[in-house]
Amino acid sequence: MGTVVTGDDTVHGWTSTSGSALTGKQICHAVYRADFAEQGDSCKLLSPPPLVVVSTGPQPDALELIERPENCLCFKSVPQVDLLRLAKPALFVTNAGQNPFMESLSIGTPLLVCPGFGDQIPNAANAQKLGIGEKVDRPTQSEADIAEVVAAYEAGVSNATRKVLGEPREAFLDKTIDVAAELGQAGGVEKAVHILLAETKKSKP
């Protein structure tokens, strides 16, 4: 869910709301519970149940009162880029910060995006628009009971997970493969440097 939301930032961090209805902790806990329920060892979406790897961040209460299924591994941090490239996961649950968003696009894995703030919000919208995944927006401030808001958000994450991992999955997979292929043909850093140098030469008097 990102280093900021799981960190101690006073505006966007673990105990902060970013102006929404829920804190970083409440958002993360809802996502973890939904993920464990849908992809845990009793998973009905994939057979056999998948290996679920979770990067929880540094908080001591990152998994407070949350039961971890046997097929789920939780760490404070993971080598995300290597894991994505080597495992090519069936689903990448992410906040869609620019780095993880581009990393996931480059390897062609379907997304479940749970944005927190900033660039994560338009990236989540783009993921859904491109057809490469589903998004679950952070709840806005509401007069509803906070427990009801958390429950509704958690249900949204569960529903989105079932949609991406359910049948037929090919629609999401085909889109992600197409996007990864387009990015692969773009030329990467080398092409970007070439363009910048060419433009710099043009601008010189």
TrEMBL record:
PANTHER family: EG:EG0003.4 PROTEIN-RELATED, FI06409P-RELATED. Keywords: Glycosyltransferase, Transferase. Coiled coil: none annotated. The keyword Lipoprotein does not apply. InterPro entries: UDP-glycosyltransferase, UDP_glucos_trans. GO terms for molecular function: UDP-glycosyltransferase activity. This is Uncharacterized protein.
